[in-house]
Amino acid sequence: xxxxxxxxxxxxxxxxxSSRDTMQDITSxxxxxxxxxxxxxxxxxxxxxxxxxGVSERMLSQTLQRLxxxxxxxxxxxxxIPPKVEYALTDLGRDMAVRLVGLIEFVESTLPTVTAAxxxxxxxxxxxx
Amino acid sequence: xxxxxxxxxxxxxxxxxSSRDTMQDITSxxxxxxxxxxxxxxxxxxxxxxxxxGVSERMLSQTLQRLxxxxxxxxxxxxxIPPKVEYALTDLGRDMAVRLVGLIEFVESTLPTVTAAxxxxxxxxxxxx
Lengths: 129, 129
Prior knowledge:
The structure is a homodimer of 129-residue chains.
Chain A: H1 19-27, H2 29-38, E1 43-44, H3 45-51, H4 57-69, E2 73-78, E3 84-89, H5 91-109, H6 111-127
Antiparallel strand pairs in A: 1-3, 2-3
Helix pairs in contact in A: 1-2, 2-5
Keywords (chains A, B): DNA-binding, Transcription, Transcription regulation
GO molecular function (chains A, B): DNA binding
Protein name (chains A, B): DNA-binding HxlR family transcriptional regulator
């Protein structure tokens, strides 16, 4: 993956800008839900997996690794028997999560409108047959 | 795809909630960029494809179809020779795009921090070898 040229301004429209990668990390199906869940507070792996309904262990693990690499979450091994791993947002992750939760709430609020639009579109599509 | 139970509240955390589909439509790599581009004003297909750097004709076409079905954009055939197709945001699409553009601008502004975090993470990873 090519690194960013620091003399260029970030531009998500440009295919080579690595802000696109970050955008994908935070808006991927699981990245988004993991950040939104961690916005509720720190989670251990198993509890986070139950919260993010439908994610596999492997996918959640990969997702968390990407978010940790981006500096959005921390991974702390708790010294106990058996050892537990806890995930939490960093300050940057919190700033990101606040915006994502806002977006999620907006999308949830539009669900009736979107559902109606889909039904209308599908009816239009079959009307011509 | 199962339709929503209208007696349930939208909950993107639930695997069966179709707000997850909308979320994916608007935050997919190309959905996001198409909405953000149309936030600048209406676009014809070819111009939109140039703006959304890197998208194939087929992918852009599929993306626009999903966004139209969700009621976020309109597709208008302009009566001229040769006929042209113009895409524009609906009111709902504009509300969505405003939020997405805000998110994009935030992500772009975090690029130096994220890039530094990645470098640190990668250095940590190899330090142990």
